[in-house]
Design goal:
The chain is mainly alpha-helical and 84 residues long. It has one domain: Non-ribosomal Peptide Synthetase Peptidyl Carrier Protein, Chain A. Helices cover 51% and strands 0% of the residues. The longest helix is centred in the first third of the chain and has 16 residues. It is globular and about 30 Å long. 18% of the residues are buried. It comes from Paenibacillus lutrae.
Length: 84
């Protein structure tokens, strides 16, 4: 699966979870302008582990790595150990 496909799937997951009509690579996920609360973030991360078949390493996760769809995509790719 290439980077664009992963990014689109992450955006689609967020749209589905939050019943949003539009999510793109620049959508802010956390912080004051973010669309996710802490419980939804946990659900999202669990769903990403399941969909992309990897085990999350919390040591590699930073606030920046989950701050946007673009950054979350890069974190998922790194966590999977792939380079699409």
């Amino acid at each position: 699966m290439n980077r664009d496909a992963i990014q689109q799937e992450i955006a689609d997951i967020i749209k589905e979870m939050l019943h949003m009509s539009f999510v793109d690579k620049d959508t802010v996920l956390i912080g004051t302008a973010g669309v996710l609360d802490s419980m939804t973030l946990i659900r999202l991360l669990a769903e990403l582990e399941k969909r992309f078949d990897f085990t999350m390493d919390e040591d590699d996760m930073t606030l920046d790595s989950i701050s946007s769809v673009r950054n979350l995509t890069e974190w998922v790719i790194q966590s999977k150990g792939e380079n699409p």
